[in-house]
Amino acid sequence: MIWAEKIWWRKVQQDSYWDEVQTLQHGLMVERSSKLWKLDIFLDDDGIMRMKGRTIEASSEVAEAVNPVVLDPRSAVRKIFASCLWCRIRKVTPVIPKMADLPPERVTSYGRPFMKTGMDFFGPVYVKVGRKKEKRYGVLFTCLAVRAVHLEVAAKLTTDSAINAIRRFIDRRGTPDDLYTDNGRNMLGAEKELREAMKQMEKCKMLDFAAGKHFK
To answer: Environment class of residue 114 by beta-carbon count within 10 Å: exposed (0-12), middle (13-18) or buried (19+)?
Structure first.
């Protein structure tokens, strides 16, 4: 085991400090441009580069403590980083996902704003009514094509408040071709009521048409 360690020490030193090892083998001093110039280094009987210490008179110390082996510190640092999970996590660069193509609603051209609209609630926002504070919610309408914004105020997160906000939006901006929302309960309730209202309107139109044509 000791001989195996010495073989690896020599291999690492030759890979990292080839010029210094060759210089010491020829009995010369290390050049001033070397990283090891300030260290008092020498080659032992096994051809391993060591550093002279100040505890050479301490007979109780082992050889590695009196004359430590000179190794490349970068390899030791890399070994520590490789074994440290937190270091690897911090060093990893996150992969940037590829952006998907925009949906057709986002690239609609030659149309008025708010033809394709997204709707969402935000809040609550506290307002003062008389001497007390009450909750109000903002309703955000966004044009999916030109990113224009329209704001409304809803009294509650209910289906009726959502329908009233949509009515005020339509009165101001016109009826959108498509209205996209999330799956909130108030939104689902508003969708259900609007669909039932549309069916009732179609039924009333048919009845009026039949009455005008004297159908039975």
So the answer is: buried
Q: Can you give the pTM of this predicted structure? A: 0.47
CB 114 within 8 A of CB 148: yes
Round to whole Å and give the CA distance between 23 and 8: 20
**Inter-CA distances, 132 with 54, 125, 129, 144, 161, Å:** 81, 14, 6, 38, 21
Q: What is the largest CA-CA distance in the chain?
A: 125
Among residues 28, 68, 73, 75, which one has the least CA distance to residue 49? 68
pLDDT in tens, the chain (216 residues): 577 777 777 777 777 777 777 887 787 877 777 777 777 778 887 788 887 766 666 555 566 677 777 777 666 666 666 777 887 777 778 788 888 888 888 887 778 889 899 888 888 888 888 888 888 989 999 998 888 999 999 888 887 888 888 889 989 999 888 888 877 666 666 667 667 765 665 555 544 543 543 333
Q: Give 180's strand partners.
A: 118
